[in-house]
Design brief:
The model has no long low-confidence stretch (mean pLDDT about 95). This protein has helices spanning about 1-5, 10-25, 40-60, 60-65, 75-100, 105-110, 130-145, 155-185, 190-205, 220-225, 230-250, 275-285, 290-300, 305-325, and strands at about 260, 265-270. It is globular, with a radius of gyration of 21 Å. The protein has a two-stranded antiparallel sheet. The protein is about 65% helix and about 0% strand. With about 325 residues, the protein is mainly α. The protein binds fe (ii) ion (2 copies). One fe (ii) ion binds near residues 86, 140, 143 and 169.
Length: about 325
């Protein structure tokens, strides 16, 4: 399938490389950094993995916003650990993307210059403590649904990074669920705060799976390359099914009265999503886009001395080792 969708190479070395690549993909095996790969495969991966890394890093901001206001020391410690995990996810993913030949510095520069994309959901504000619960439950929940199949992605470093990321995402989702559960069983005002947070984060979390299948032109190629395993709509309906069960335990509701299980298709159905809003936010016009990028830019500038010191230390260590050798 891959051969029919990509441009066909003409050079002899590329022909052999393409044939080897096609065999690996057909065997559902793994491509490693030094293997020959089609340029389009490399580009797709750099785009996808760097966008994913940027999302982890930018995604720290809406939640970090609540670290100083967490309702107890225990909640503060848990939230700090969670936000720190997201930084780690960004680092695993930047490292995986670097193995494809794009330096991390270039990816960071593209992000702070506003040239790179990240998940549109992180451009929404966190208005109450319950939002931290809703993010953990819905946003990390959607991330798990999306990312578990990526553990089998054909590009080795990406798949292996995702295995570690997914383990931590399960903890994130549980901490979010537990925050909501406690609020939902609290005072009427706390329960209402939890419901409002779920109401606001529900639709953006469904849109995290990307546009509907008939408006997602790159998905077919990504599936042919075994990067993606399921389509956006397939993953989205699965996620809805999971949330329907869990929201009952919470004693809350999902803000969508059109959710139903279709026995004929064996799939969950949900109400329409506002894709115009999704496109607006993705284009940089969401409620917090400029704030998120500005904060990221400041953090990058503030961290310049750390990078310089680390580089100087590494150079000195290297020189010392050379001297010994
Ligand atoms: Fe993460
Ligand atoms: Fe997470």
């Amino acid at each position: 399938m891959a051969q029919t969708l990509e441009s066909v190479p003409t050079d002899a070395a590329d022909l052999a490389g393409q044939a080897a690549f096609d065999r690996v993909i057909a065997a559902d095996s793994r491509i490693e950094p030094r293997d020959w790969m089609p340029e389009a495969y490399r580009k797709t991966l750099v785009r996808q993995i760097s966008q994913h890394a940027h999302s982890e890093i930018i995604g720290m901001q809406p939640e970090a916003n609540w670290i100083s206001r967490a309702p107890s020391l225990k909640r503060k410690a848990i939230l700090m650990a969670k936000v720190q995990d997201e930084a780690g996810h960004g680092l695993y993913l930047y490292s995986a993307a670097e193995t494809l030949g794009t330096p991390r510095q270039k990816m960071t520069e593209d992000l702070i210059a506003g040239k790179a994309r990240y998940s549109s959901i992180f451009n929404y504000p966190t208005l109450s403590w319950a939002d931290v619960g809703a993010i953990g439950w819905l946003v990390d929940g959607a991330a798990i649904c999306n990312q578990v199949p990526l553990c089998r992605a054909s590009y080795g470093p990406y798949g292996r990074a995702m295995v570690r990321v997914c383990k931590e995402e399960s903890f994130h989702q549980r901490q979010g669920f537990e925050i909501l559960l406690e609020l939902a069983n609290g005072t009427p005002a706390q329960k209402q705060m939890a419901q409002h947070a779920v109401n606001r984060w529900y639709a953006p979390s469904l849109m995290m799976f990307g546009p509907p299948d008939d408006d997602s032109p790159n998905s077919i190629q990504s599936m042919a390359w075994n990067i993606k395993r399921f389509s956006n709509d397939e993953l989205r309906q699965r996620f809805v099914g999971m949330m329907v069960e869990q929201v009952e335990v919470l004693g809350l509701t999902l803000p969508d009265d059109q959710i139903r299980f279709n026995d004929e298709t064996n799939k969950w159905e949900h109400g329409p999503l506002d894709w115009d809003e999704f496109k607006e936010v993705l284009a940089g016009r969401g409620p917090c886009n400029s704030q998120r990028l500005e904060r990221r830019r400041e953090a990058h500038e503030d961290g310049a001395w750390v990078r310089e010191a680390a580089a100087a230390y590494a150079a000195r260590k290297h020189a010392e080792q050379e001297g010994v050798a």
